[in-house]
Amino acid sequence: SILILGACGQIGTELTFELRAKYGSENVVASDIREGGQTLMESGPFELLDATNYEAIEDVIMHYEIEEVYLMAAMLSATAEKFPMRAWNLNMNSLFNVLNLAKDNKISKIFWPSSIAVFGPNTPKNNTAQNTIMEPSTVYGISKQSGERWCEYYFKKFGVDVRSVRYPGLISWKTMPGGGTTDYAVEIYHAALEQGKYQCFLNQDTKLPMMYMDDAIKATISLMESNPEKLKVRSSYNLGSMSFTPKEITESIQKHIPDFEVTYVPDFRQEIADSWPSSIDDTAAKHDWNWKPEFDLDSTTAEMLNNLKKTS
Ligand code: VAH
């Protein structure tokens, strides 16, 4: 069976639905520090679980005979800047828990998400390479860079089968993101439908790597199902699909909602965004496990507006 830690988060929610559809609801245990939405809670087994509590995770693993763990619990970039030590504790100790469970052969495979946040202000920003300068300037980025080093160490030293991708900003409609710098790209669709206007917390020309959630989930499951011999990267794979600025996503929305108005009032998140790449070179993922994204900005906008209209 599969255990998802952080199943109520932006990615965790959609991973739970997709894995349950694929492997059967009873074989996918969702867990989080708090309960999730009705659909998630009613769709299969759920456990309240603190991802920093080793014994609590071990109990769930024994009880449900868990073999694989997706560790989706973390504090994201903006919130982590407000609570650095809480972010470090959650992001690192949850990872140590699952790595040590695998090292002790209590589970056999781990997925752990990294992020483009591992790159910093002096990383070359265009078509950022798999291996390049990485001096992250955010608490979140530091925790993800360190996490990558630990993943590779546990793979090399103890043969732990941990797999990871560096997610770009993710756009989804099923669950709101929490505390990220790229969250503007989700909020903007809700605002377009609900208020007809949006105040964006990044300036209009801030180009960032982004991805529609369906592509992110497809990549995650594809990597986890890949033949391990093909996986040459055991830190974390660069993963790309599209890059856009707040101005470009606004124009994409205005094709559907012509009088949608956006103002740009950068806040503390501008400095975080400015430290990240503009676009990503994901040649390694394409080569090692045939990664291929499906959604571009306009198809993402169509999906987001259509689905949000139906659920509003
Ligand atoms: C954040 N959505 O904004 C996350 C992600 C690359 C961005 O790590 O912090």
- Coarse morphology: globular
Topology, number of strands: 14
Major pleated sheet:
6 strands, parallel
Alpha-beta content class: alpha/beta
Strand content: 15-25%
Mean pLDDT: 97
Bound molecules: (3R)-3-hydroxy-L-norvaline
How far is the first residue's CA from the last residue's CA?
A: 34 Å
Task: Please explain how this structure is put together.
With 312 residues, the protein is an alpha/beta fold. The protein has twelve helices and 14 strands. It has helices at 10-23, 38-42, 54-64, 77-82, 84-103, 139-158, 184-194, 213-225, 246-254, 269-274, 283-289, 297-311; strands at residues 2-5, 28-32, 46-48, 68-71, 109-111, 114-115, 162-163, 165-167, 169-171, 197-200, 208-212, 237-238, 242-244, 261-264. Strands 3-2-1-4-5-7 form a six-stranded parallel β-sheet, sandwiched between helices. The chain is globular, with a radius of gyration of 19 Å. The chain binds (3R)-3-hydroxy-L-norvaline. (3R)-3-hydroxy-L-norvaline is lined by residues 76-77, 115-117, 140, 168-169, 177, 180-182. Belongs to the NAD(P)-dependent epimerase/dehydratase family. One of its GO terms (molecular function) is L-threonine 3-dehydrogenase activity. Residues 2-240 form the NAD-dependent epimerase/dehydratase domain. This is NAD-dependent epimerase/dehydratase family protein.
